Amino acid sequence: MAAILFFSSLLATVILICTPREERALALGSMLAVAAAFWFAVRIKLHTIIAGILGFLMQRIWENRIDLLYGFGIAVILIVPLTMIYVELCDHLDRREMLATSRKLRRLSRTDAANTTDPAGKPSRS
Questions:
Q1: Residues facing residue 81 across a β-bridge
Q2: Cα torsion 14, 19, 21, 24: sign
């Protein structure tokens, strides 16, 4: 425990030396907040609480591992056809939009050509 305290105080000293003078108060406050959080976590034995929760979760996962394996397998198998359907649908919609735009342009070019020249090939007076 003494070695941990020595090296953590050495690290704090090095950080404070390397920190610009204007930001030293902020750095010291941050270090104190982190130290208080660590002290509180050790005090309430947070590592045993987290280990208990993780142990419970791992036990549940191990008990249902076959079901989870089937679920992941089905998800992987279904991703490919769903992606193909999505890509095809996007292509279809893009083609429809492109066709509609080309039809509008053709219609506009026909009406524009009809307005600018008369049948004899002379420009109209519009």
A1: none
A2: negative
| Measured distance CA(66)–CA(96) in Å, rounded | 45
pLDDT tens per residue, range 22-72: 888 888 888 888 888 888 888 888 888 889 999 999 999 999 999 999 999
Alpha-carbon gap, residue 20 to 12, rounded angstroms:
14
Residue partners of 117: CB distance under 8 A and separation at least 6: 123, 124
- Helix ranges (DSSP H) in the chain: 2-18, 24-43, 46-63, 65-116
Per DSSP, 83 falls in state: H
> Is pLDDT at 5 greater than 60 in this prediction?
yes
Q: Residue 19 has which token pair? A: 């920190």
C-alpha R_g of the chain: 36
Distance CA 56, CA 53 (A): 5
